[in-house]
Amino acid sequence: MIDPCDKCEEVLQPYLDRELTEAERFEAEAHLDLCGYCRKRYRFEESLRRYVRQAWSEGMPPELKEKLAALRTPIL
Ligand SMILES: [Zn+2]
User: What is the pLDDT of residues 7-60, one digit of tens each?
Assistant: First the structure.
């Protein structure tokens, strides 16, 4: 699958991890306004992370934790 936007990974990962400066976040948000692909991905990732964090804090089965850890997505 071809990634239509090279900026996506670069912009979205730190954005989701809340590691951007104010200026960078502004730029990322501007990009999300312009790029439907990023916007969809961002919403998906954000809801996924929210779900995972909630499930994590409520306590989840160890085997599910292992599966999530295997996804290599930084969760916390
Ligand atoms: Zn994009």
Answer: 777 777 777 777 788 888 888 888 889 888 888 888 888 888 888 888 878 887
**Distance of CA 66 from the midpoint of ligand 1 (Å):** 30
CA distance 28 to 34: 10
7 with 31: CB under 8 angstroms? yes
What is the CA(11)–ligand 1 centre distance, in A?
A: 8
State the distance from the centre of ligand 1 to the C-alpha of 34, rounded, in angstroms: 8
**What does pTM read for this prediction?**
0.56
